[in-house]
Each structure stands twice: as C-alpha cells, then as structure tokens.
From TrEMBL:
Keyword Zinc-finger: yes
Domain (CHY-type): residue spans on this chain: 67-143
Annotated protein name in UniProt: Zinc finger protein
KW DNA repair (keyword) present: no
C-alpha cells in the first residue's frame, strides 16, 4: 500500500511540524533535525533532502518516494512512469519505444514519425496509473517517477549510474558525467574533455547519420567515435569496419588511425615484389587521401606511396605510357 501525500502530511502534523503546502514542499524543506540524502535528482544534479519520518506502518517518506525503484520501465530506461505521445496521443514507456513502433517496416511510410521529446505534456504513473502533467513526483501516490528528472527534455530515469546531465548547448540530456565532457559550439555537440584541445572542428559534426548504419548520431544512445579527420561514426560501426580491414573514413577516405606500422609492412612487400622489366619506367599520378598531395610515382601493382607524407592511402588519378 502506497503512502499518499495526504498521509504524509498527517504524519508531519502529528509530530508537531508545520504543515507543508505540498509533498514537494515537504521533501525540499530543510528541517533542523537530522536528515538523510535521498537519491532523487533534478537536471541540475542537486539532491533533495527528506526527513526520515515514519508513518503508522513504519514507512519513511524516503521509502514511500522510492516505491518500485528499478522495477518499472523498458529496455531503454528504468522509470516509474509512461508518457503520452503528443504526436499520436498513444501511451508508450519512452520515446525510443514510440520511435521503434512508429518507424517499423509494418507502418506505412506516410505514417512514420518520431516523438518530439520536448513537447511531451502528460505522463502516467506506473504504480497508480494516474495521468498527470509532467512532474517528478506523482500527484496521487507521491512516488518519485524518476531519480533523474529533466523538465526540459521530459526525461525520467531511475538508473543514475549513467551520470545523466542536461547540456544547454545541445539542448538535450547526455550521459557520462558533465565533468567529463565539454560542448564544442563549432561542432555543435559534446565531446570528451580529452579532445578539448586536440579534435579537428567540423561544423555540425554529429548532426548527420552514421556513414555505416545511417542512424542519426546526434540523438544516438550508442557510443560515438571522433575520427582523426573530425568526422564521427558509431564506435561499434568503426570496429566492424576494422574487422573487415577497412581503415579509411567512409566520408573523406582519410586514415582513421595511425597506419605507420602497416606502411612499413607495405614497404617490405613492395621491396620483395619486383615488377616486370616492362613496368620499370611506368609512371602514374596519384592523390594522397591523407595529406591531399599529388605525386608522380613509379607504378607498382601492390600500392603507390605518397612522396609527401609517405602514406599508402592513395588513389591513382591518371597514368602515363611507359618509355
């Protein structure tokens, strides 16, 4: 049986405390007696303080707020509420569940759509099924519907191990801890602080689809890697490329990692593979995908080496007749 707001107020009254206006006021009130930190968090990361007051059944205010913790939700979020989609007026566990259902191959193309996260107005408590305006605490049973709550993104999540935070530059919530990321205003996205002074800026770097799986990167929940060229790609997609011996950016063809060891092996391979005499004087023009230089080099069936940066990541642009 859940402890409603009225019940909590009566408990406070019986102890001789002033009556708070709402359950939210009771939770936020800073009493002079000993208090304990609850895990309820807002988008600003502040912890609410709750009085450890017990009702007749021995239930504390904190325990009442945390009823059903980590017991509800979907594969995307652990939360104690569902949302009513403003676009189609249907109820879903989260926006990802909505998008998966409404963009499946079983839905006619003209009816496919994504849920606009910032426009969500109504949520349904998973414990008492009360529909209400977006808020962190249920107006009926008083339960906290999400330990992490962002009023801007309408995001609820009980799993705070993700270290969620709201990025005002991106306009959405991110995970990983705000202290570990910075917002690059030229790239228009958040990057690890390790890349703050070393990443090449590409305008709108993540405001496009992954070049491998075509998922929109800016709102992707999967890890994203920033390549040496500044382009972005899913980490899993990059690993899959490397498993198939693909080491060039799908967008600009620059090497995605340090290939110096590979170039050394190609040097040995070319030295061990002499061309027939008829090809000794055959010259071709190449364009280096890494540095962009044009070079005229001797043709070899294995690969052509850039004279400027010594890379073998080159392409032949035109040839010349042998002399």
């Amino acid at each position: 049986m859940y402890l409603a707001e009225e019940g909590l107020v009566n408990v406070i009254k019986s102890l001789g405390c002033d009556e708070p206006e709402t359950l939210q006021d009771m939770i936020n009130k800073d009493y002079e007696t000993d208090t304990t930190d609850s895990c309820s968090q807002h988008s600003n990361g502040d912890c609410l303080l709750t009085e450890e007051v017990r009702d007749g059944a021995g239930t504390t205010a904190t325990e009442a707020l945390e009823k059903g913790l980590m017991q509800y939700g979907c594969s995307h979020y652990r939360r104690r509420c569902r949302i009513r989609a403003p676009c189609c007026n249907e109820i879903f566990d989260c926006r990802h569940c909505h998008n998966e259902a409404k963009n499946s191959i079983n839905v006619k193309r003209k009816h496919r759509h994504d849920l606009p996260r910032h426009q969500v107005q109504q949520v349904i408590c998973s414990l008492c099924d009360t529909e209400q305006e977006v808020r962190q605490f249920c107006i009926n049973c008083g339960v906290c519907m999400g330990k992490y709550f962002c009023e801007t993104c309408k995001l609820f999540d009980d799993d705070t191990s993700k270290q969620q935070y709201h990025c005002h530059g991106c306009g959405i919530c991110r995970i990983g801890g705000q202290e570990n990321f910075f917002h690059c205003y030229k790239c228009g996205c958040c990057y690890s602080v390790l890349l703050k002074n070393s990443h090449p800026c590409v305008e709108g770097a993540m405001h496009h689809d992954c070049p491998v799986c075509f998922e929109y990167l800016f709102e992707s929940t999967d890890d994203v890697s920033v390549l040496r060229c500044g382009h972005t790609i899913h980490m899993n997609c990059l690993k899959e490329m490397q498993q198939h011996l693909q080491y060039a950016c799908p967008l600009c063809s620059k090497s995605v990692c340090d290939m110096s060891k590979v170039w050394e092996k190609l040097d040995m391979e070319i030295a061990a593979t002499p061309m027939p005499e008829s090809y000794h004087n055959k010259m071709v023009w190449i364009l280096c995908n890494d540095c962009g230089a044009n070079s005229e080099v001797q043709f070899h069936v294995v690969a052509q080496k850039c004279l400027n940066c010594k890379s073998y990541n080159t392409r032949q642009t035109r040839g010349t007749t042998s002399t």
